[in-house]
Design a protein that fits this description.
By secondary structure, the chain is mainly alpha-helical. It has a domain of about 35 residues. About 55% of the residues lie in helices and about 0% in strands. The radius of gyration is 21 Å and the shape is elongated.
Length: about 100
């Protein structure tokens, strides 16, 4: 079926740029990715992935203020002092 309908949306510029970089690496234009998503919505009769808040998201330190960054460093120091650490040997074993 020929494509004759358009979808217009506003997205965060940074998010769009990051998504374009990922999709470019896959060789998929953004328009094709959106089309693929919409096909999956129809096939799955809903959103084709879980929509939920992750249990624990990793911090993006570039988005933290100086005060927030310092608070995170203090948490790490507190964990070290309290013995809440995992050895690199244990991490390798689990991997």
């Amino acid at each position: 079926m020929p494509k004759s309908s358009s979808v217009y949306t506003r997205v965060e510029p940074g998010l769009k740029e990051k998504a374009e970089q990922v999709l470019s690496g896959l060789g998929i234009p953004v328009a094709n990715a959106i089309n693929m998503f919409l096909h999956q919505v129809v096939l799955q009769n809903g959103i084709p992935f879980d929509v939920k808040i992750p249990h624990k998201m990793p911090l993006n330190y570039s988005e933290l203020s100086t005060e927030q960054f310092n608070a995170e460093i203090e948490k790490g120091i507190d964990d070290l002092n309290a013995g809440r650490v995992t050895s690199s040997k244990q991490i390798r074993k689990e991997m």
